[in-house]
Amino acid sequence: MKPGFDIPCETRTLPNGLTVVVAPQPGLPVVTVDVTYDVGSRVEPEGKTGFAHLFEHLMFEGSENVGKGEHFRLVAEAGGTMNGTTSEDRTNYFETLPAECLDLALFLEADRMRALVLTQQKLDNQREAVKEEKRLRVDNQPYASSFETADALAYDAFPYRHPVIGSMDDLDRATLDDARDFYQRFYAPGNALLCVVGDVDPDDAFGRVSAAFAPVAPRGRPSPFHVEEPEPRGERRARTEDLHAALPALHVNVKTVPRRHPDSFALLYAEKILGAGESGTLWRRLVKDEEKALSLSIHFDERRGPSLFRAFCIARPGVPHALLEREIREGFARLADEGPAPAEMERARRMLAADMVRSTQTTQAVAFLLSEYGLYDRDAGLWRPDFERILAVDRESVRDVARRTFTDGRISVVEVHPAEAA
Amino acid sequence: MTVSPPRPGPPRPFAPPPFVETALRSGLPARAARWGKRPTVAVSIVFPGAGSASDPAGREGTAELVAESFLSGTRTKSARELAAAIDDLAAIVEVSAGSDSAVARLFVLEPDLDAGLALLSEILTEPAFPEDEFEKSRRRLVDTLTEQRAQPDFLAHERLLDRLYPAHPYGRLTPTERGLASVTRDDAARFAGERLSLGRGTLLMAGAAAPDRLLAAADRELGGLPRPVTPDPPGVPDAPAIPDFTVHLVHRPGSVQTNLLFARPAIARSHPRYLTALAANQSLGGGASSRLFHVLREERGLTYGAYSSLSPRVRAGHFGASIDCRTDVTREALGGLLGLVRDYAGGGPTRDEHERSLRYLSGTFVLARETPGAIVQDEVSRLLNGLPRDEWATWRDRLAAVTTKDARDAARDFFDPSVGVLAAVGDASRLRPVLEEFGEVTLWDPDGPRN
């Protein structure tokens, strides 16, 4: 099986150290500009949680030539959309615009990379917005805080143990000096990758990027950061009470290899075989056929450091945690013992191929794909050999990897119990 | 600013693709367009009048149960076999019920188009609705309601629609437990046979392949199927008038935020002033550069986001504004939200705001149409709402002709918050005294009226 399409791209490095990837996608007059910085919540020390994400907010608050609120306004009045996201492993900023507005996106990104303007008032304002975001997305939602519990249980080292959104106390402690230091350390051109995808001529686009980013002076790059975890030694368990949950739920997580580790390609098959589409074996059994779960998601959460193979399940009324846990562990064990059936394997292979086609239909999605490879692996085109490696995985590999991954020593279990309001 | 931002180059032309319109051998209306960069095809078969707004009286929930049950097996395939057949193609197949229609969707890679269409036709024309699977679907929808009612946003929307469209089918966000309990397997089979008959459907397709090829595949797989003549579904009644402003508080113990949703009647999608109202909404609360977001988040730090929107349906529609805030600033947030909406209804956008909104809507119109699925969805909307053939081809020109005065008039006519419904979700012990400053409060439990 072959990909059936390509994403041509070219990479150059500017004198100030900024890596630039341009991928022409002729046709629709649209362009996406993405700048991904090599900094995520994993770099936060204890007492500073949530800072990478808080800083992402500050990046929209104005720079030397862009006033407060101007970033939103300028992109909107150009007919574009924009946002930023922070994960454990990186922070990205992106604009999707009519193609004739490429220069505006480059201007905005260059100006805030060169001369962000930080003030106490902006920090205080965005601190409140982030705390409100935490209340909205975590504190006031069913099950959301249990994911934080699950990560803290699964990981030993602090970088992946704490949530991206951070704690209220740590957010309150963040200072303007912290922000200035963070900007100097991590927002250097040599610590970022810029990706342009859309209806552009590559040489013209490189020229525009060079002109826009020439005023950005080089700054030192932070030392490479690695998340190291001790080898798992024994199953872990936790129990949480959730004031907002109406039904019990269960996390069963398995700590495993980093992204692009040879085992990771087989784990993508395990994800599909157990939980994807209409026929994922564990999903079908628990959700559809036996009505034990209202929902079940199986997700291989790939990270630059150790990843998690996640199962999260909401119980049907009256179904005990123990029963769900046994079913999920037996599902893992079946895959490890018997390996996938030939039909399951081919189905998963087709799904993975189709996912790649569907998930690269927009300029933004392509920019995210190339940026990840370009920043993490220094080769934006690596997606294609990786894709071919994925399509080449065989049944025995899946069984072998499942056997080594789904072991009791790697598993952590969190039971979520609905709690009564006081 | 010391250096001005660069000005955009001249706008590049963009036109949505024309749909080739034809009929298959059976007479099934079919439209296809060439669109997209990848070898994938989006297919929808639209059944107007098969949505929840046309549920049989006393059987509310029928449309959702029918949609949920289509993938539970066919005459020759069990539910498991059907699931495997869909996944063998790596296709996405779904049947969903909205308020005004049901839509069967297929997303498939181009080389598998024939097989995907064959499967879709089997699902639609040979459904088995096995009794045991039907009961499973019913139980699943009931349990889903339990889980949904733990979510504050769901509770706010559920109560808002219930009070904004009282005793009207648009007032149901989801089926109720009572409605679901009343629908039998035979009711569902009858509804499917009458409302989701190919005699009532229209086929829409888009993909990177030429329309002729898409339509030829459709004719091979669907063109030979009968199109039974079935009775017209009942019409959706006019929405009731909302004469005043009412406040409804859903008590959610332990909430650390207040979810506030305001809405008032506005206009249906086919209304001639819809585009004008859309432009007017953009300046008020359509995005992160709009007035609500700028004042309530960026200037006052009261919220993570504040927005307004239009929610048009075939027979009616409403305008809404929303904000989520920590409980102890509910008074300031709600007062701020309603005050800004009231001021805007009185004065509309400035000329600068209006021109920015037109540029935003015109530009994002292009961005939103990168995929074949988006192009098919445009055609679904055109079909359901009876929009003219050139709706999308002329959309940006018509938008550009909307004046600041037009937008001001729309704000005045459709956004005034002196009538409407406010739905709040949070801890009633703390919220009730605050909300009573805005109007008489009716208190609700998550699952209905408070006793």
Describe the structure using short key phrases.
A: alpha+beta; Cytochrome Bc1 Complex, Chain A, domain 1; five-stranded mixed β-sheet; 16 helices; 44% helix; 19% strand; B: 451 residues; alpha+beta; seven-stranded mixed β-sheet; six-stranded mixed β-sheet
Description:
The complex is a heterodimer of chains A (422) and B (451). Helix content of chain A is 44%, strand content 19%. Chain A is of the alpha+beta class and 422 residues long. Chain A folds into two domains: 204 residues, Metalloenzyme, LuxS/M16 peptidase-like (Cytochrome Bc1 Complex, Chain A, domain 1), CATH 3.30.830.10; 183 residues, Cytochrome Bc1 Complex, Chain A, domain 1 (2-Layer Sandwich). In chain A, the strands form two sheets. Chain A has a six-stranded mixed sheet, sandwiched between helices. The termini of chain A are far apart. A seven-stranded mixed sheet of chain B has the order 9-10-8-11-7-12-13, sandwiched between helices. Chain B folds into two domains: 203 residues, Metalloenzyme, LuxS/M16 peptidase-like (Cytochrome Bc1 Complex, Chain A, domain 1, 2-Layer Sandwich); 205 residues, 2-Layer Sandwich (Cytochrome Bc1 Complex, Chain A, domain 1), CATH 3.30.830. The N and C termini of chain B lie far apart (60 Å). In chain B, strand 9 and strand 10 form a beta hairpin. The interface between A and B is large, with 83 and 78 residues.
